[in-house]
Amino acid sequence: MLNRKLNVFLPLLFAIVLALGMYLGHQMPGSNSGAQTLLFSRAPQGPLQEVMDLLKVKYVDTLKVADLQQEAIEGLLGHLDPHSIYIPPSNVEEVNEDLDGAFQGIGVEFNITADTVNVISVIAGGPSETAGVKTGDKIIKVNDSLVAGNGITADKIRKLLRGPKESKVMISMLRQQKIQQIEITRGVIPLYSVDASYMITPEIGYIKISKFAGTTYQEFIEAMRKLQKTGMTKLVIDLRQNPGGYLDAATRIADELLDDNKLILYTKGKSYPRTDYDCEKPGLFEKGALAILADEGSASASEILAGAVQDWDRGTIIGRRTFGKGLVQEQFDLSNGGALRLTVARYYTPSGRSIQKSYANGRVAYDEDIMNRFNHGEFVNKDSIKQLDTVRYKTANGRVVYGGGGITPDIFIPFDTSRFSNVIANMYARSTFSNFAYQYYNSHRDEFKSYKDATAFTKKFELNNDIYNAYKTFAAKDSVRGIESIKPHDEVEIRTRLKALLARQIWSYEGFYESMNKDDEMVKKAVGILQTEK
């Protein structure tokens, strides 16, 4: 009975619903203009997307739409801060690898001289060492691709050598005038960010951090434990030319140096409420004299660490005024495989100062800031440092510090302009130093076997006149001008650099920095200060 009644009234019910729908549709905006009703319309497009759509459909010639989109994005970001950037799909993997701290490949460092790919270093424990690759080998072919004598570039050889973990690659190597076929199984290759850690004196340790990557904190902890086992009670952290990286890496290292629950920094942005980053656990080095080395190339996460140490009077900042980057970026993946690294907040040191330098005059002026500092004399005279922010902030002990353009060091060390004469600059530009060191080491390996480690090499090895004269002959053949009129300070630079590069051939960056730091003014100043502190 109930079903019969429903069957009678269903047509009437449908008619009522249909009439109501037609009435409501007539009353909606756009119903009298022939447009779709709001019920089915999409959100209106912005003019930028409308232009792109019209270009794709209506333009007279075929366009490379991806290139146009990239230029449009970069043009848009060009009106923002200098650190908001677009990363094209082709660059995303390389950029992420650099900060993730690893890539997949065969594990060698190489350079290209005279159209030849030379293996200058084999990563210990990596796939190439396992397969028998040696420093001094020359790469002739990668699988079926000839890479010698055909204008090979670093990017091309890098793409040929890298590949998925466990994949195999056949390398033809020239060793002592004989071709050797070596099959290498690719693996995960670490990109270290702690370049060196060693004892400068029986009580003072040294750690060089080149960037703040995904593995930096763990590398730092391992270096600290190694040094503490050998008696370290005082520490130098070298952040010179460290461009920054992950915020998390900097805050976790700061937590190892500061005690209690001290504030490390806080961030704040239009769409990001204030977030405090505090110490959360007991650290490995909360007590003990500390010095941090910094210069105009120390930026971002480096300034976070230096700023926290300075504001809490935890240690001494030595060097020159840092870069001045107080902005925080977040990376967003895009549908085309690219990424947008967008500034989302500013960060502030514990005293409340922002150290971001002004970008009000555009990116060109921003990029020229470091050169302007040099021309103004700031690199050689502390009194030439301009404090752009006149607000006076206080450290924990009441010392006055300023923001608005980097971290000003507690102790200023001038830049040694005499190190870079025209002849020295020419040698650097042509890679003459590294090319000679590579060739000399490979033809005199037996001479270096008596040095058990980089420390022994640094203390005992002297770059004699035979090596120095051989280098001058090499440089002259390399078309370096001015060899005949080298001045005494040029000779000191040449001998120092060659010794360090020879150490690098054997002990990688650990050997390089231990050798270079022996006569480094900032390091010597740090050691002098730490030796006077308890």
TrEMBL record:
Q: Which SUPFAM superfamilies match?
A: ClpP/crotonase, PDZ domain-like
What is the official name of this protein in its record? Answer: PDZ domain-containing protein
Q: Name one GO molecular function term.
A: serine-type peptidase activity
What's the family?
A: Belongs to the peptidase S41A family.
Keywords per UniProt: Hydrolase, Protease, Serine protease
Q: Which GO terms describe its cellular component?
A: outer membrane-bounded periplasmic space
**KW Hydrolase (keyword) present:** yes
| Keyword DNA repair assigned | no
Q: Name one Pfam family in it.
A: Peptidase_S41
| GO BP, sorted A to Z | proteolysis; signal transduction
Family matches, as InterPro entries: ClpP/crotonase-like_dom_sf (IPR029045), PDZ (IPR001478), PDZ_sf (IPR036034), Peptidase_S41A (IPR004447), Tail-specific_protease (IPR005151)
**Which PANTHER family does the protein's record reference?**
CARBOXY-TERMINAL PROCESSING PROTEASE CTPA, TAIL-SPECIFIC PROTEASE
Annotated PDZ domain residues: 92-162
